[in-house]
Write a structure and sequence with these properties.
Blueprint: H1 2-13, H2 20-45, H3 51-72
Helix pairs in contact: 2-3
């Protein structure tokens, strides 16, 4: 029974929409915007970065870039 569930899960995961070229371009733009935002917050807001900021920002940036990539995909605006 467990192997059937694993097979269905792997088939579903293999069908996630992904266009590599679009994702990497989107990720590059999102990274630039995130770095610019952090610069402004630290420089003018007086905020001090913590270790959690680096990890959280990294994960959030990749997830946000993937969501924007989905929105920009051909046929993604339904």
């Amino acid at each position: 029974m467990g192997s059937v569930v694993q097979a269905k899960l792997s088939n579903t995961m293999g069908k996630l929409p992904f266009v590599a070229g679009l994702f990497w371009k989107t990720l590059a733009i999102v990274v630039v915007l995130v770095v610019l935002t952090w610069f402004i917050i630290v420089r003018f807001g007086g905020y001090t970065m913590t270790a959690a900021d680096y990890g959280g920002t990294t994960i959030s940036t990749v997830l946000f870039a993937y969501l924007v990539h989905l929105w920009l995909m051909p046929g993604g605006r339904g």
